[in-house]
Design brief:
With 358 residues, the protein is of the alpha/beta class. It folds into two domains: 186 residues, 3-Layer(aba) Sandwich (Rossmann fold), CATH 3.40.50; 157 residues, Glycogen Phosphorylase B (Rossmann fold). The chain is 39% helix and 18% strand. It contains 13 helices and 15 strands. Strands 3-2-1-4-5-8-9 form a seven-stranded parallel β-sheet, with helices on both faces. Helix 7 crosses helix 11. The longest helix is centred in the last third of the chain and has 18 residues. It starts with a strand and ends with a helix. The model has no long low-confidence stretch (mean pLDDT 96).
Length: 358
């Protein structure tokens, strides 16, 4: 198939989780013999932080302005496509949707990597910056980062002809156990961009335990944290860690912390890509709680849950290395069985097949 994708970014993982998600999916689709043309708006903050400027598995098309050089190039490229996918937060998604529905014969798909955020805006305003409620029926399929009850809402309340759970995934060739790197060695790490609604949990479940365990080292990696954040003195911060270092970080952490945005908690069934990436490296996981988590991991078996600093401290001090290793390996086995990019590529082919042939 020739697949045209319009996404937030594939060239830069700075401040977003879209790039690694698109990279993993596109790489596997390419391996399966498909041709992928990827359109990305050339914006300064990604241009200055590109960690994969030339993805080898896609035909990358950067444009600067939709009207001047984006629309015509997309229309020309999509005219003989077998499927066209528009991703959430693509800057010109609304205009692209209208144009593609008029001028493109291929089935049009929407990939929502931000489903709870999208739905919160649709319920309140009837649209967000990349999707209007009235356009949802134009998409032959709605691929949702979130599963569970919201799928019925997208279908019944917003008129999608087909909604499928399409969770993020991991590329095992990039995310696997590596030797410990001294610069990343720590008792507990967290990898993620600053988010105001998530920050109180980060302070409670990482910073507060760090203050209690002053002889241990803790690590936070990600951009946009305020300069005046009152980190404990034993918390090391990295403003940006490229994906090439993620496996080393996870493999060098005794435990990895997962935290969930408020909209994702409210919707449930929204596993972070970091969960799959860390578990693919057999890292022992500590997570906050959210509805539907048990569909992906089993608390006490391949993940442990915490809601207070004292609970985190007990896990860090009481769990043996052998038990932590067994938990990490159990999570790794589950992720590699169900949540690899290869599995998502198969699922994508199945969605297109259903759209084309019922």
């Amino acid at each position: 198939m020739k697949i045209v994708m319009l996404g937030l970014s594939i060239t830069s993982s700075w401040g977003n989780g879209h790039a690694t998600t698109f990279r993993a999916l596109c790489r596997e689709l390419h391996r399966r013999g498909h041709t992928i043309v990827f359109f990305e708006k050339d914006v300064e903050w990604y241009r200055s932080n590109r960690d994969l400027p030339k993805p080898p598995y896609v035909d990358l098309r950067l444009y600067t302005d939709w009207q001047q050089d984006g629309a015509l190039a997309t229309k020309h490229t999509a005219h003989d496509a077998d499927a066209v996918l528009v991703g959430s937060y693509f800057p010109d998604a609304i205009a692209a949707t209208v144009m593609l529905k008029q001028d493109c014969k291929a089935p049009l798909l929407f990939y929502d990597i931000d489903t709870p955020i999208t739905l919160a805006a649709l319920r309140l305003h009837g649209q967000c910056e990349y999707l209007r409620a009235q356009d949802i029926p134009l998409y032959a399929a709605y691929l949702s980062f979130t599963g569970g009850p919201v799928l019925r809402e997208i279908e019944q309340s917003f008129g999608s002809p087909m909604v499928v759970p399409f969770y993020c995934s991991v590329d095992p060739e990039l995310y696997h156990r590596t030797p410990v790197k001294k610069e990343f060695a720590c008792a507990l790490s967290y990898l993620g961009t600053y988010a105001a609604d998530r920050q109180p949990k980060l302070m409670d479940l990482l910073n507060a335990p760090a203050a209690q365990l002053s002889m241990e080292r803790f690590l936070v990696a990600g951009p946009m944290y305020p300069a005046d954040t009152p980190w404990s003195s034993n918390v090391v911060t990295h403003p940006h860690l490229p994906p090439s270092d993620h496996a080393a970080l996870y493999s060098s952490s005794r435990f990895v912390l997962n935290l969930t945005r408020a909209d994702m908690v409210a919707a449930g069934y929204s596993p972070s890509v970091r969960l799959f990436e860390a578990s693919a490296c057999a890292a022992p996981l500590i997570s906050d709680t959210w509805p539907g988590l048990e569909e992906f991991f089993t608390p006490g078996v391949d993940i442990v849950l915490a809601s207070t600093a004292d609970e985190v401290v007990r896990m860090l001090t009481n769990m043996s290395e052998a038990d932590a290793r067994r938990m990490g390996e159990a999570a790794q086995a589950r992720t590699l069985a169900k949540h690899t990019a290869a599995r998502r590529a198969e699922e994508f082919e199945q969605v297109v097949e259903r759209v084309l042939h019922g």
